[in-house]
Specification:
This protein has 4 helices and 5 strands; from the N terminus they run E-H-E-H-E-H-E-H-E.
Length: 120
């Protein structure tokens, strides 16, 4: 039986290393059969906007946009913190493919099902 794994990603261009490593770990989790959710919150909410991650490429890693696409294509779940998204004036019509805006209750529900969690 597959487990549940959550990556809480609080970084975007303010810390591209954390943003990149968060997706690297999430890709490893989904590839190992875990039901994997990335929760984009705080500055990480910007990653849900089309075009934002296009120029992020940490040395030694694949480009962030490629890692994000791989995650969604592999069946990873991408949630975006609703209040974080709204606070930053982001537009729903600019959401990247596979992203879903959710509230805290959805996150609590997933975690209460025994999901392991890590934050970047």
């Amino acid at each position: 039986m597959a487990g549940k794994f959550l990556v809480s990603l609080t970084s975007g261009k303010n810390d591209t290393d954390k943003a990149t490593v968060g997706f690297v770990v999430a890709n490893a989790a989904v590839a190992s059969g875990q039901e994997t959710v990335i929760f984009l919150n705080i500055e990480g909410a910007y990653l849900a906007s089309k075009g934002y991650a296009e120029d992020i490429h940490e040395e030694g890693f694949a480009p962030l946009k490629q890692l994000m696409d791989q995650f969604v294509e592999a069946g990873g779940i991408l949630w975006v913190c609703s209040p974080c998204f709204k606070k930053r004036g982001l537009e729903e019509e600019n959401l990247i493919e596979g992203a879903l805006i959710v509230g805290g209750a959805k996150l609590v529900e997933f975690l209460s099902q025994g999901a392991a969690s890590i934050t970047y």
